[in-house]
Amino acid sequence: MKLRGLYAITDGPLLAGKFLSYVEAALEGGVTLLQYRDKSSDEARRLREAEALRDLCERYKSQLIINDDAELAARLNVGVHLGQTDGPLSPTRALLGSKAIIGSTCHAQLELAEQAAKEGASYVAFGRFFNSNTKPGAPSCSLDLLDEAKRTLHLPICAIGGITLDNAAPLVAHGVDLLAVVHGLFGADSTAEVTRRARAFNELLKV
Ligand SMILES: Cc1ncc(COP(=O)(O)OP(=O)(O)O)c(N)n1
Ligand SMILES: Cc1ncsc1CCOP(=O)(O)O
Ligand SMILES: [Mg+2]
Question: Model pTM?
């Protein structure tokens, strides 16, 4: 199955007090991948939250991806997203098995994506494309790189960084398969608005 659609990413501070209700609202609108991104070191809470997300994803036929933490992903039998300093890809592929979804951060560098493809990545992520509240310091990436990536890579392409309903269309026009979004999805005033946004992202991607 080709990975295509909305890639919702959680954020602890943004979702404080409404974590599961907002995630469920997004799933209601359609989420292809859901990433649990939590930078805290509270292992017990991380396990609890990740288990709750895995159960929700099962109900909504979405796929859970754990950010940074291959061990937690292995424990829950779900996918993982690895940045350039989050550990090597090949051993993670061996740990999680051939069917697991493994994503790789490639910033704005095609060479990183080619390497990730060789090492067994399931998708490659480029960005940030726009100003990001969640990660303002992330290196920026241009639409031109997407054209080149589309020509040379044979993997689903994910875009991340400051993506909203108002700026996502050019990314899709340049061949992006997965739109990875934090604020543009969860920075909403109500669960109804989260669901509406999720549906609208899917319409943009025609999924
Ligand atoms: C889909 C997706 N793309 C990129 C990232 C960024 O990963 P990384 O560079 O490891 O930074 P952190 O998210 O860990 O701060 C991502 N998480 N997801
Ligand atoms: C994790 C990450 N990596 C590059 S930008 C980013 C944050 C994405 O969040 P937002 O959609 O709020 O900009
Ligand atoms: Mg990381």
Answer: 0.98
